[in-house]
Design goal:
Length: 66
């Protein structure tokens, strides 16, 4: 005796369509997450460069104590 009955072809196609849509949403989410991560890293690079420039400027000014 079969444990699971065979699904109708239309149900199978519907399941494939749902799976395909879920995969597309996942791919779009992954792309958005990667973009957000890269934007964050670029922002950190800019902040780091600004802090280094400020530190260098303060270290070079007379009476800065650094």
């Amino acid at each position: 005796m079969l444990r699971f009955a065979r699904t109708a072809p239309s149900a199978h196609r519907a399941a494939q369509a749902r799976l395909g849509a879920a995969r597309r949403r996942f791919d779009l989410s992954t792309i958005a997450l990667r973009k957000a991560a890269l934007d964050h890293v670029e922002g950190e690079i800019l902040v780091s460069a600004a802090l280094r420039a400020t530190l260098a400027r303060l270290a070079g000014s007379p009476g800065s104590g650094l």
